[in-house]
């Protein structure tokens, strides 16, 4: 998902996708600790995507306060 796609999502849908992404990220880390992943860079990609989603939510929160 790209930044533009994140901005187009509604807040409720973004929160739902964030929750799903966080669950997948935790499961990915657990699986990686048990046996190495084929692509360990996926962990970094997922973490950054979660950060992008949180950043967009925070930006919206700050815009509502003005």
TrEMBL record:
<dbReference type="GO" id="GO:0006412">
    <property type="term" value="P:translation"/>
</dbReference>
<dbReference type="GO" id="GO:1990904">
    <property type="term" value="C:ribonucleoprotein complex"/>
</dbReference>
<keyword id="KW-0689">Ribosomal protein</keyword>
<dbReference type="GO" id="GO:0003735">
    <property type="term" value="F:structural constituent of ribosome"/>
</dbReference>
<dbReference type="InterPro" id="IPR001854">
    <property type="entry name" value="Ribosomal_uL29"/>
</dbReference>
<comment type="similarity">
    <text>Belongs to the universal ribosomal protein uL29 family.</text>
</comment>
<dbReference type="GO" id="GO:0005840">
    <property type="term" value="C:ribosome"/>
</dbReference>
<protein>
    <recommendedName>
        <fullName>Large ribosomal subunit protein uL29</fullName>
    </recommendedName>
</protein>
<dbReference type="InterPro" id="IPR036049">
    <property type="entry name" value="Ribosomal_uL29_sf"/>
</dbReference>
<dbReference type="Pfam" id="PF00831">
    <property type="entry name" value="Ribosomal_L29"/>
</dbReference>
<keyword id="KW-0687">Ribonucleoprotein</keyword>
